[in-house]
């Protein structure tokens, strides 16, 4: 009987790249709704604007590379990059900030290395780090979450649109609607006990800070949905969260002014859950083997705590992910599974007799 000779790829149907990307985008919906509830219309505006930029940059590069537009645009990878970056940016970030970040993520983070599947770094985090290093003031201008006593919010779609796109109206002064994030307040604290810090800053009320605790729980819900759909395995996210928990537990100073925050605070503030379930699980830039993913995730968790506590930035998820992206090939080399019929993993070509 003759066998059919069919070239790769061999995967079709339910397991397609486009379907997986759509599932991940769908899983961000709880976080998107939560961010919109606490921080207003800016999240929606950023998401639409970032998506348009990503699709435009993707189409332009594909045209230059003479690749079929419909085939590559339909895989939803550029759209997912835009969604993740838009959710990570401050909701009222100026339009040009989103433009630079998304364009850099698509053009440099993705296509400079050959496109999807060839990029060694997570494109969304690469764009985020570029913005964080280049424009720290704009990247730290987070709007006050709804419900914080005495905070001035940007009410309504029109006000948010004019703040993001000031060409269409007079925006509010940045100082009028922004507050320091819980991670910033914790990192800058040098003299107050945690009880005094909590009493002085209403934004800290709650385990991870008002608003941020619900955002992290929303990302957790989306991540558990993806885990249930078998989009990724549990190894990287669980090891990251365990490593971060152990670090925060070991260095926890109680109510002392030198304390870096409790385990619950670190798990439910900043971009912890987004990093664990939506960034560390990227199949292209993470480790491949199960043991490798455990080491990869643990490395991210340790680095997140180190950067948050002693680094120059309040949240270290993006930096931690990029550093471990560089380490992923080495981790894969030393954690290769044993080949069937061999006692040890074959880490290289067989030597000639």
Automatic annotation (TrEMBL):
<dbReference type="Pfam" id="PF03116">
    <property type="entry name" value="NQR2_RnfD_RnfE"/>
</dbReference>
<feature type="transmembrane region" description="Helical">
    <location>
        <begin position="20"/>
        <end position="38"/>
    </location>
</feature>
<dbReference type="GO" id="GO:0005886">
    <property type="term" value="C:plasma membrane"/>
</dbReference>
<keyword id="KW-1003">Cell membrane</keyword>
<feature type="transmembrane region" description="Helical">
    <location>
        <begin position="234"/>
        <end position="252"/>
    </location>
</feature>
<keyword id="KW-1133">Transmembrane helix</keyword>
<feature type="transmembrane region" description="Helical">
    <location>
        <begin position="44"/>
        <end position="62"/>
    </location>
</feature>
<dbReference type="InterPro" id="IPR004338">
    <property type="entry name" value="NqrB/RnfD"/>
</dbReference>
<feature type="transmembrane region" description="Helical">
    <location>
        <begin position="293"/>
        <end position="311"/>
    </location>
</feature>
<comment type="similarity">
    <text>Belongs to the NqrB/RnfD family.</text>
</comment>
<feature type="transmembrane region" description="Helical">
    <location>
        <begin position="95"/>
        <end position="113"/>
    </location>
</feature>
<feature type="transmembrane region" description="Helical">
    <location>
        <begin position="125"/>
        <end position="144"/>
    </location>
</feature>
<protein>
    <recommendedName>
        <fullName>Ion-translocating oxidoreductase complex subunit D</fullName>
        <ecNumber>7.-.-.-</ecNumber>
    </recommendedName>
</protein>
<dbReference type="GO" id="GO:0022900">
    <property type="term" value="P:electron transport chain"/>
</dbReference>
<keyword id="KW-0812">Transmembrane</keyword>
<dbReference type="GO" id="GO:0055085">
    <property type="term" value="P:transmembrane transport"/>
</dbReference>
<keyword id="KW-1278">Translocase</keyword>
<keyword id="KW-0288">FMN</keyword>
<dbReference type="InterPro" id="IPR011303">
    <property type="entry name" value="RnfD_bac"/>
</dbReference>
<keyword id="KW-0597">Phosphoprotein</keyword>
<comment type="subunit">
    <text>The complex is composed of six subunits: RnfA, RnfB, RnfC, RnfD, RnfE and RnfG.</text>
</comment>
<keyword id="KW-0472">Membrane</keyword>
<comment type="function">
    <text>Part of a membrane-bound complex that couples electron transfer with translocation of ions across the membrane.</text>
</comment>
<feature type="transmembrane region" description="Helical">
    <location>
        <begin position="317"/>
        <end position="335"/>
    </location>
</feature>
<feature type="transmembrane region" description="Helical">
    <location>
        <begin position="264"/>
        <end position="281"/>
    </location>
</feature>
<feature type="modified residue" description="FMN phosphoryl threonine">
    <location>
        <position position="181"/>
    </location>
</feature>
<feature type="transmembrane region" description="Helical">
    <location>
        <begin position="203"/>
        <end position="227"/>
    </location>
</feature>
<keyword id="KW-0249">Electron transport</keyword>
<keyword id="KW-0285">Flavoprotein</keyword>
<feature type="transmembrane region" description="Helical">
    <location>
        <begin position="69"/>
        <end position="89"/>
    </location>
</feature>
<keyword id="KW-0997">Cell inner membrane</keyword>
<keyword id="KW-0813">Transport</keyword>
């Amino acid at each position: 009987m003759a066998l059919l000779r069919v070239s790769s790829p061999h995967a079709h149907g339910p397991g397609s790249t486009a379907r997986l990307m759509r599932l991940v985008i769908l899983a961000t919906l709880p976080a998107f709704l939560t961010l919109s509830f606490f921080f207003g219309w800016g999240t929606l505006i950023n998401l639409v604007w970032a998506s348009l930029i990503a699709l435009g940059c993707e189409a332009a590069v594909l045209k230059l590379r003479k690749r079929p537009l419909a085939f590559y645009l339909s895989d939803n990878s550029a759209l997912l990059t835009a969604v993740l970056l838009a959710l990570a940016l401050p909701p009222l970030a100026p339009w040009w900030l989103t433009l630079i970040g998304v364009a850099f993520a698509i053009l440099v983070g993705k296509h400079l290395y050959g496109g999807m599947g060839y990029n060694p770094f997570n494109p969304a985090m690469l764009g985020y780090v570029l913005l964080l290093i280049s424009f720290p003031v704009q990247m730290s201008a987070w709007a006050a979450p709804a419900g914080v006593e005495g905070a001035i919010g940007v009410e309504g779609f029109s006000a948010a649109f004019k703040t993001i796109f000031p060409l269409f109206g007079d925006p509010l002064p940045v100082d009028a609607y922004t507050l320091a994030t819980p991670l910033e307040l914790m990192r800058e604290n040098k003299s107050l006990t945690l009880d005094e810090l909590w009493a002085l800053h209403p934004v800290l009320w709650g385990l991870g800070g008002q608003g941020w605790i619900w955002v992290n729980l929303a990302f957790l819900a989306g991540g558990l949905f993806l885990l249930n759909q078998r989009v990724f395995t549990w190894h990287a996210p669980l090891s990251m969260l365990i490593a971060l928990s152990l670090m925060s537990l070991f260095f926890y100073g109680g109510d002392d002014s030198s304390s870096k925050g409790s385990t619950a605070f670190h798990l439910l503030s900043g971009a912890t859950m987004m990093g664990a379930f939506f960034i560390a699980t990227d199949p292209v830039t993470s480790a491949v083997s199960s043991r490798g993913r455990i080491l990869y995730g643990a490395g991210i968790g340790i680095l997140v705590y180190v950067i948050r506590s002693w680094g120059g930035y309040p949240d270290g998820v993006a930096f931690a992910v990029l550093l471990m992206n560089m380490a992923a090939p080495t981790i894969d080399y030393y954690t290769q599974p044993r080949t069937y019929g061999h006692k040890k993993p074959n880490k290289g070509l067989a030597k000639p007799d």
